[in-house]
Specification:
The chain has about 475 residues and is mainly β. The protein has 3 domains: about 100 residues, Immunoglobulins (Immunoglobulin-like, Sandwich), CATH 2.60.40.10; about 100 residues, Immunoglobulin-like (Sandwich); about 210 residues, no CATH class. The strands form 7 sheets. Strands 9, 10, 11, 12, 13, 14, 15, 16, 17 and 18 form a 10-stranded antiparallel sheet that branches. Strands 29, 31, 32, 34, 35 and 36 form a 6-stranded mixed sheet that branches. A 5-stranded mixed sheet has the order 2-8-7-4-5, with no helix packed on it. The N and C termini lie far apart (about 115 Å).
């Protein structure tokens, strides 16, 4: 009994000890919390102050910039942002957030007032400025008395698939808010943006207004905005687009494929000298017009300028003699050239091979190099009359990697019937100079460019003129 009593007493002592420890822990927690609370006692709350604010001008055009000036401060906390919003037709949009530093700042910044759908002229606009500090303290100020008007443009651009093709939209006579293009041929489904400005190489210039897609709606976007997706049921191709800048909507018209035509689906993919080509063997008829579709309808594609005339975005006219040919579409350089079924030779053709020359392209300069092994090695001339031939070529500058530009005309692919520089007299643009027995080559200091040579093989004369791409 005594042992049992001692054991129970020891247990009781242990329990009391544990209880004291727990009480001390709880007391410590409350003590620490109390200390923390005491430390915050007297810490001042802080509300940032918009001391003054102004926006000029008071009358503007949507899509143009206005200037925001403001003086802001916070006596205790660091400033964070000045957010500017505009309420247009009862819809509030955030225009810009200006990052601030320190306890005081003077803002003088241009901001763009966006155009949104279904907004008329003389629309009342209210601006809201919200100032925050780095502890989420905030204050706001409302500015009223502003009027916005609609913008109208002499032209806009529809940019297909992020720059593959660009077409000009012009305003309708009956409705200045609607911009249309009717000379267009694209697949019945494609993606696009509408741009106010484009660069020299047909890319979107984001310094102007750009309409894209955000949140499933057409609206103004920056570089991060998405393309608008178009799809027209019941047609093979889309031939016209109308963009309504009042409603921010687009509509399309289209139709069936027309024949005869060139379609990429009929071509076979291959590789020539490491570049991707598509080839198509077909019979071509002199003066026949061919409709071009899919990738081949791109206005960036240059069809051999001696054998084809570009009628419009989706039509070319064949100028050569009726016969069997292979078309070569170079996907890298975006041009279409051709060779006859039988090896070309005089008197139907003469051939030019050399270095630093090539077929014209809007995308990439061609670099042919001596030989007749494939369509990239030499240029085909078109016979335009008895013993007179025409060829349009890109000639590189003498500062090119080759260090010099040289080429010769030949009567066949076996290197036969060649003629040298001094065999000819020259008229037209004074492009060439050389020495007796030399290859033909451009004169020193001449600019690279696209030139058309008319070669009289019998009279030994070459006429030179400069050419602009279609």
């Amino acid at each position: 009994m005594l042992k049992k009593y001692i054991s129970n007493k020891q247990k009781l002592i242990k329990m009391r000890t544990i209880s004291k420890i727990l009480i001390l822990c709880v007391f410590s927690i409350f003590f620490l919390a109390s200390c923390e609370k005491d430390e915050n006692i007297g810490a001042p709350s802080s509300i940032p102050v918009i001391e003054s604010a102004n926006i000029t001008p008071t009358v503007f055009t949507f899509g143009d910039s206005v200037t925001v000036t403001a003086k802001v401060s916070d006596a205790v906390k660091l400033l964070s942002t000045l957010e500017i919003q505009a309420t247009i037709n009862g819809r509030t949009v955030t225009i810009q957030k200006i990052l601030l530093e320190g306890n005081a700042a003077e803002v003088n910044q241009k901001i763009l007032v966006p155009i949104i759908d279904n907004v008329t002229d003389n629309t009342e606009v209210t601006f809201q400025l919200k100032l925050t500090n780095n502890k989420n303290g905030s204050s706001s100020k409302e500015l009223t008395g502003f009027t916005g008007n609609r913008p109208y443009f002499s032209k806009l651009y529809i940019v297909i698939n992020s720059g593959d093709d660009v077409y000009t939209l012009t305003p309708q006579t009956s409705d200045r808010d609607k911009y249309e293009v009717n000379d267009i041929v694209v697949n019945r489904s494609f993606s696009y943006k509408i741009a106010q400005k484009i660069t020299a190489n047909n890319q979107i210039d984001y310094s102007g207004l750009v309409w894209g897609e955000t949140g499933g709606k057409i609206q103004l976007v920056d570089e991060t905005g998405g393309d608008i997706f178009a799809f027209k049921t019941g047609v093979d191709i889309i031939t016209s687009v109308v963009f309504d800048n009042y409603k921010f909507t687009s509509s399309f018209n289209g139709g069936p494929y027309l024949t005869p035509n060139f379609m990429i689906d009929d071509f076979t993919e291959t590789s020539i000298d490491g570049e991707e080509f598509y080839t198509f063997e077909t019979t071509l008829t002199k003066n026949q017009e061919y409709n071009v579709y899919n990738d081949l309808a791109s206005i960036n594609i240059v069809y051999n300028m001696d054998f084809f005339e570009r009628i419009n975005a989706n039509k070319v006219k064949f100028l050569g003699e009726t016969g069997n040919y292979t078309l070569y579409y170079n996907k890298t350089r975006k041009h279409v050239v051709l060779l006859p079924e039988t090896p070309p030779a005089y008197p139907d053709y003469i051939l030019i091979t050399g270095g630093g020359i090539g077929y014209p392209s809007k995308i990439a300069k061609e670099h042919a190099w001596w030989g007749f092994g494939n369509v990239r090695n030499f240029l085909l001339t078109r016979k335009i009359s008895a013993d007179v031939y025409q060829v349009t070529m890109f000639i590189l500058s003498q500062s090119d990697q080759y260090g010099w530009i040289a080429f010769k005309p030949y009567e066949n692919t076996g290197w036969g019937g060649e003629k040298t520089y001094d065999a000819f007299t020259y008229t037209g643009l004074p492009l060439f100079e050389g020495t007796a027995g030399s290859n033909i080559f451009p004169a020193v200091g001449k600019e690279e460019g696209i030139y058309r040579l008319t070669i009289d093989w019998n009279a030994n004369n070459i006429h030179v003129e400069s050419v602009t791409l279609p």
